[in-house]
UniProtKB/TrEMBL annotation, chain A:
InterPro entries: Emfourin (IPR049457). This is Uncharacterized protein. The lineage of its organism: Bacteria, Bacillati, Actinomycetota, Actinomycetes, Propionibacteriales. It comes from the Bacteria. It comes from Aeromicrobium flavum.
TrEMBL record, chain B:
GO terms for cellular component: extracellular region. Its main location: secreted. This is Neutral metalloproteinase. InterPro entries: Metalloprotease_M4, Peptidase_M4, Peptidase_M4/M1_CTD_sf, Peptidase_M4_C_domain, Peptidase_M4_domain.
Length: 94, 347
């Protein structure tokens, strides 16, 4: 595979749960150094090792992946840097 | 007067109280004490020791989040206030009333806590928000994105479903994960459907057994979000795909997503309830609904499995001359095979 087109960073958001129980997925790929540089601060700002809180009934569940990092978050925990990252991925991918 | 509530939510107290490991003994004991001291309690106490209800009139408060996410938002309609003219706010107000009517008139229950707790709701939550939920204190409804979903108050079964999540928190406290979470979801669907049937005066044969009719826009190929009569058939759409709910244990979905597939595997106990209701006939809330309601108030573990819940419903059904029908329904959805089914205890 052409090294130039290997994505440097892949950020994926998978949303499940909610009243409807529908699965939605959004993904961005940074293929250039410049693109990756733009995404990294958003990724780094998130508390990836924080303990997930309990979900409330019918709250969405977010699975966020950035290369080898991964976190599963109930909707109520998606605020601050998580909210910024998730919204940025959803907006870029939509 | 608002009902007094402790800072630790009752479902958490119940969860802690249920812990059996030695290292949690102190916390568990404290939680049991807190539960027993609560003026408002769940179903583990015998009905006869319930304190007298002083003020248990229906009280509703509907708020408007004005497309923000701060809860509860601005109060737009309190109990007895005239209609606001805002469709979502008025649907929530009326839906709370219809839900209260089922539980009050048929089961003698006064609000979720059986002590007249004010029913709180918020409409117009977020921007194009595709969801409705119970946050532990109140019900929250989004407007939908307008492409896939319209407003979430449009279906009475959705309003009844959310309020039932509150009821479950005050009674069995089913943990919202894996099988106990799927039971939580299913019971919310059961009473959501019964609220609709009760309001329309429908019998089990007349009812649609659909959850969330009218939520999808015309763009979507589907009539509802879930079908209790035929799980997996509510929608089949190019964009959304096909309704993924199983209706039998053979198709039970093992997943870590959606809190362990709580909105998927709920199709199995949903189908069991539908079988009981249609087999018994008549108004589903009268016997089938009462069996499920009494099971919720009984001695059910917060982490109950499908099989434990099924056993509990059969035990309750003995008192309603319906044990064979209930046992047969759980067999039909594969929770029991013929050989593992508990035998009748009436002999
Ligand atoms: Zn639910």
């Amino acid at each position: 595979m052409d090294e130039l087109h290997q994505p440097l960073l892949v950020v994926r958001v998978i949303r499940t749960g909610g009243f409807a129980g529908l699965r939605r997925q959004w993904e961005v790929e940074a293929t250039s150094e410049d693109e990756a540089q733009a995404w990294w601060p958003l990724v780094e700002a998130c508390p990836w090792d924080a303990t997930p809180a309990d979900n409330h009934p019918d709250g969405f569940v977010y699975e966020v992946q950035a290369n080898d990092r991964e976190a599963t978050l109930p909707e109520r925990q998606v605020d601050g840097p998580w909210r910024e990252l998730v919204d940025a991925v959803v907006d870029s991918a939509s | 007067m608002e009902t007094i509530r402790g800072i630790v939510p009752p479902y958490l107290l119940r969860h802690i109280a249920g812990l059996e490991e030695d290292r949690f003994a102190t916390a568990a004991e404290a939680a049991r004490r807190a539960l027993s001291e609560r003026p408002v309690h769940g179903g583990h106490a015998h009905p006869s020791v319930r304190p007298p209800v002083v003020d248990a009139e229906l009280r509703r408060k509907v708020h408007d989040a004005e497309n923000g996410t701060d809860l509860p938002g601005r109060l737009v309609r309190g109990e007895g206030d005239p209609a606001t003219g805002d469709v979502a706010a008025d649907e929530a107000y009326d839906g709370f009333g219809a839900t209260d009517a089922l539980f009050r008139q048929q089961y003698g229950r006064t609000s979720m806590d059986d002590a007249g707790l004010t029913l709180l709701g918020t409409v117009h939550y977020g921007v194009a928000y595709d969801n409705a939920f119970w946050d532990g204190t109140q019900m929250v409804f989004g407007d939908g994105d307008g492409e896939i979903f319209g407003r979430f108050t449009a279906s009475l079964s959705v309003i009844g479903h959310e309020l039932t999540h509150g009821l479950i928190e005050y009674t069995a406290g089913l943990v919202y994960r894996d099988q106990s979470g799927a039971l939580n979801e299913s019971i919310a669907d059961v009473f959501g459907a019964l609220v609709e049937q009760h309001a329309a005066g429908q019998t089990a044969d007349e009812a649609s057994w659909l959850i969330g009719v009218g939520l999808f826009t015309d763009e979507v190929e589907g009539e509802a979000l879930r079908s209790m009569a035929a799980p997996g058939t509510a929608y089949d759409d190019d964009v959304l795909g096909k309704d993924p709910q199983p209706g039998h244990m053979d198709d039970f979905v093992e997943t870590t997503q959606d809190n362990g597939g709580v909105h998927l595997n709920s199709g199995i106990p949903n189908k069991a309830f539908h079988l009981v209701a249609t087999e018994l006939g008549g108004h589903a809330w009268e016997v089938a609904g009462r069996i499920w309601y009494e099971t919720l108030l009984g001695d059910l573990s917060p982490r109950a499995t499908f099989e434990q819940f099924a056993q509990a419903t059969v035990a309750v059904a003995e008192n309603h001359d319906a044990a064979d029908v209930v046992r047969g329904a759980w067999q039909a959805v594969g929770v029991w095979t013929n050989s593992t089914s508990p035998s009748s205890s009436s002999g």
